[in-house]
Amino acid sequence: MSLTIKHLLGLRSVPKEDITLILDTAKGFQEVLSRDIKKVPTLRGQTVVNLFFENSTRTRISFELAEKRLSGDTVNFSSAGSSVKKGETLKDTIRNIEAMKIDMVVVRHQSAGVPKYLTECTNAVIINAGDGSNEHPTQALLDMLTMRDRWGALKGLKVAIVGDILHSRVARSNMWGLATMGADLWVCGPETLIPQYMQEFKGVTYTNNLDKALKNAKVVMALRIQLERQSTGLFPSINEYRARWGITAQRLEKSGCSDALIMHPGPINRGIEITTDVADGPNSAILTQVTNGVATRMAVLYLLGGGREHAAE
């Protein structure tokens, strides 16, 4: 089987069959990562450029590890210290990189739409590693893999995403992806941090009442409160946010979801969006998400890179 998409720009228009294939393939790569020798020759001879215009720790390292586990040649690009600082355009940057005979580009950029624009400038495969407040598709895919591993299926699974939905590319990709997979998805947070166009997300329920969102949920995902936006007055004081939307063990028990899988894309503001005992508790999958990130990105690179014959070697 193969994907119907040539690039991974987001999950908004990715069909259920493609998402399922990526998750099933990632499941196979989980087994590869459990071996003593965590490497397969799938991308041997292919060159992947990690084109990061924005700071990243987990995503960048995860992609780089995935590329190396697949035996691909990896080139890391950072806008700091590059010709971008001299005024080089994005189009010229990607065309010069392509002239060096590369195959795939993993791009993170502070502006929404950059991955889509790059597909118009190069013949290389483009993978979106986060573009502004638009999407972060591989994060949502690894989240779905983590949920599926715990509960067996995504269809009908009640998932509550809590926090700054408005500025979260993670939330946006999860809303598109989980809705496509038939999950019972709820989003919750201050009204000022919810997109005005929520009606576009079919199958997604919004409430600012945390207890209602959490009721009988099987997955609870807290999002980072972006403290740098506090000066804009888009959300209440930190204390009020903690009191109304903070995830605590007491609140989970009260809502009948004390066994819920606890998730967070990181980094965590401990004691604000989630308490330490919950983040580090027995139901926390936060570090599992990080581990699954490598397997999921291996699957995406493998399927988009066209390599299939060596997958299980």
TrEMBL record:
Pfam families in the cross-refs: OTCace (PF00185), OTCace_N (PF02729)
Keywords, comma-separated and alphabetical: Pyrimidine biosynthesis, Transferase
Known catalytic reactions: carbamoyl phosphate + L-aspartate = N-carbamoyl-L-aspartate + phosphate + H(+)
Coiled-coil features, chain-numbered ranges: none
GO molecular function, one term: aspartate carbamoyltransferase activity
Binding locations of carbamoyl phosphate: R58, T59, R108, H136, Q139, G266, P267
Involved pathway(s): Pyrimidine metabolism; UMP biosynthesis via de novo pathway; (S)-dihydroorotate from bicarbonate: step 2/3
A GO cellular-component term linked to this record: cytosol
Residues in Aspartate/ornithine carbamoyltransferase Asp/Orn-binding domain copies: 155-304
EC identifiers of the protein: 2.1.3.2
Domain Aspartate/ornithine carbamoyltransferase carbamoyl-P binding: 6-148
Residues where L-aspartate binds: K86, R169, R224
InterPro entries named in the record: Asp/Orn_carbamoyltranf_P-bd, Asp/Orn_carbamoylTrfase, Asp/Orn_carbamoylTrfase_sf, Asp_carbamoyltransf, Asp_carbamoyltransf_Asp/Orn-bd
Enzyme class: transferase
Family statement drawn from the similarity comment of this UniProt entry: Belongs to the aspartate/ornithine carbamoyltransferase superfamily. ATCase family.
Subunit field text: Heterododecamer (2C3:3R2) of six catalytic PyrB chains organized as two trimers (C3), and six regulatory PyrI chains organized as three dimers (R2).
Role, per record: Catalyzes the condensation of carbamoyl phosphate and aspartate to form carbamoyl aspartate and inorganic phosphate, the committed step in the de novo pyrimidine nucleotide biosynthesis pathway.
Protein name: Aspartate carbamoyltransferase
Organism, as annotated: Candidatus Raymondbacteria bacterium RIFOXYD12_FULL_49_13
